[in-house]
Automatic annotation (TrEMBL):
Alphabetized Gene3D superfamilies for the sequence: Vaccinia Virus protein VP39
GO MF: methyltransferase activity
Organism in which the protein naturally occurs: Escallonia herrerae
The family this protein is said to belong to: Belongs to the methyltransferase superfamily. Type-7 methyltransferase family.
Protein name per the record: S-adenosylmethionine-dependent methyltransferase
SUPFAM superfamilies, alphabetized: S-adenosyl-L-methionine-dependent methyltransferases
Pfam families: Methyltransf_7
């Protein structure tokens, strides 16, 4: 079995629930863009009875619930703008994360007033999770930056890309950075390949993730600089 790591579950002081403010701030900042992209790009079919939404790398909440709320509100507004004859579909929301995620905490925290049916989908988003052409809207925030695995060569002492036991590459050699970049490149390709199968023809995918400006060094990124302390 592939080894996976997850955020701390439960609601205690070290849980993700209590320690995800920066991700919450990021998603709040992206809210307007998310809503705008739905108004501008989502095509609503007249005959859709079910509108399927997935949050990939949802963790245990609460951020996933506010993201889903933003998506639902924007889709409902879009439906309203399409005219009074359009019947509102039922919403089905799929919460995905690695199998080791604390899904029990997530399920217990589901908003009681939600206007959607909820389901948990365990498994890696680097592979297929849903049937072909079944999803209308897929979203992922602060999760795609996670690699599927540590590149082998950074852990091998005899390799030119050995990272000397460190968990960050900010101040590492070019070979180490290249090894991480190659892993990301293969992961993102696997992610897009799976989503391209799962999204309906008129479906949308929105990804929110921390990035560096093109042409800048890892050491110029505040987030990566913090990781260097580990
Ligand atoms: C920092 S949390 C973000 C949670 C939430 N999206 C948010 O914005 O608060 C990243 C989540 O991605 C999940 N994750 C990482 N790699 C994954 C993968 N390959 N498949 C599914 N989930 C993954 C982790 O388990 C973790 O729960």
């Amino acid at each position: 079995m592939v080894e996976t790591v997850s955020m701390n579950g439960g609601n205690g002081p070290n849980s993700y629930t209590q320690n995800s403010k920066s991700q919450e701030e990021g998603s709040t900042r992206a809210k307007a863009l998310l809503a705008k992209s739905i108004q501008e790009n989502l095509e609503i079919q007249n005959n859709s009875r079910v509108f399927s939404i997935a949050d990939l790398g949802c963790s245990v909440g609460p951020n996933t619930f506010s993201c889903v709320q933003t998506i639902m509100q924007a889709v409902q507004l879009k439906l309203k703008n399409c005219g009074p004859d359009l019947e509102e579909p039922e919403f089905h929301v799929f919460f995905n994360d690695n199998v080791t995620n604390d899904f029990n905490t997530l399920f217990k925290a589901l908003p009681p007033e939600r206007q959607y049916m909820a389901a948990g989908v365990p498994g890696s988003f680097h592979g297929r999770l849903f049937p072909k052409a079944s999803m209308n809207f897929m979203h992922s925030s602060f999760a795609l930056n996670w690699l599927a695995k540590v590149p082998k060569e950074v852990t091998q002492e005899y390799s030119s890309a050995w990272n000397k036991g460190r968990v960050s590459y900010v101040l590492s050699s070019r070979e180490v950075m290249n090894a991480y970049a190659a892993q990301f490149s293969s992961d993102i390709e696997a992610f897009f390949s799976a989503r391209s199968m799962e999204l309906a023809g008129d479906g949308l995918l929105v990804v929110i993730m921390p990035c560096r400006a093109e042409g800048t060094l890892p050491s110029e990124s505040t987030i990566l600089d913090v990781l260097e302390c580990l």
